[in-house]
Amino acid sequence: MQSIRQHKPHADSLHADRLHVGIIMDGNGRWATRRGLPRHAGHEAGVEAIRRVMEAAPEQGVGTLTLYAFSSDNWRRPKAEVTGLMTLLRRYLRNETRQLARNDVRLTVIGRRDRLPEGLADEIGRAEKATARGRTLHMRIAIDYSARDAILQAASRCHGAGELTRAGFAQLVTGEADLRDVDLVIRTSGEKRLSDFLLWESAYAELHFTDVMWPDFGADDLTEALASFHRRERRFGGLQPQSTEPELMA
Ligand code: FPP
C-alpha cells in the first residue's frame, strides 16, 4: 500500500485554466437496436463520436475530457458484449495512439487494470507513455471504473498518513496533481443519473442531460452543452459568481 508521500501523481496544472468536461457516453445499444443492428454496431459508432468530440473539445475551451467507457458494473453484461467492448478498446489504442500523439493529446486511463484481458493493461501503459507530452487536450478514458472504489482506494492509502487536505486526498483519488475539478458532466440518451462516475471530482459540477444518443453526438452537441454551462451562474455555496471553487479560509 502506498503512503501519500510515496505516491507521485503527474502534474496536470497545464490544463488548470481550461474546462474539465466528463461525459457519460450512453445510448449506444438503443441507437443500434433502433436501426436493426447488433449492439456492438452502436459501440463502434460510439468510437466515431469520441473522435468528433476529441477534435472539437480544445477549440471550445476544454482542457480535460473524461469519458466513461466501461464501468466496473459493466462486467455484468453478456460475455460477448464485454469481449466486444474490450476488443474495441484494444483496437482504439492500437489504431489511434499515433494520431493522438500527433494531435498533441495526452491519453490516460483511469480505473482498475488488474481485471482487464491479458495484455490490455500493457497496451494502455504504452499508449499513455507515447502520448505523455500532449498539451492540447488531456483525454482520460474510464475503464473498469467506479468512483466509489477510487475513493475507497484513496482512503485506504491514507491510513496513518496524518493530517489530510482536500487537495492531498484529491491527488490520491485522481492520480494527478492539480487535476481541475469537473466543471460539467454530460450524459447522453435521456438518462439522468451519475452512475458512479467522478463522484469526488464532480462535487460542484453542472449537469447537462441530452436525449441525443452517444453515436449521434458531435461538435454541435458539445457546443450546446457548453453554451448551457456558460449561461449558468456558479457560486460554489457563496453569493458571488465564481469560475472555480474558491480556496477555503483556514
Ligand atoms: C453505454 O451505452 C455505453 C457503453 C457501456 C460503452 C461505451 C463505449 C464506447 C463509446 C466505445 C468504446 C470506447 C473506446 C474508448 C474505444 P449502452 O450500451 O448502455 O446503451 P443502451 O443504454 O442504449 O443500452
Q: State the shape.
A: globular
Q: Helices and strands, in N-to-C order?
A: EEHHEHEHEHHEEEH
What ligands are attached or bound here? farnesyl diphosphate
Question: Order of strands side by side in the largest beta sheet?
Answer: 4-5-3-2-7-8
- Level of helix content? 25-40%
The tally of structural domains comes to 1
Q: Kindly report the name of the CATH homologous superfamily.
A: Decaprenyl diphosphate synthase-like
The major β-sheet equals:
6 strands, parallel
For the secondary structure, the number of strands is: 8
Quick overview:
The protein has 250 residues and is of the alpha/beta class. The chain has helices at residues 28-34, 39-56, 79-102, 120-130, 147-157, 166-174, 219-231; strands at 10-11, 19-24, 62-71, 105-110, 137-145, 176-177, 184-187, 206-209. Farnesyl diphosphate (FPP) is lined by residues 25-30, 43, 46-47, 50, 69, 74, 85, 88-89, 92, 141, 189, 214.
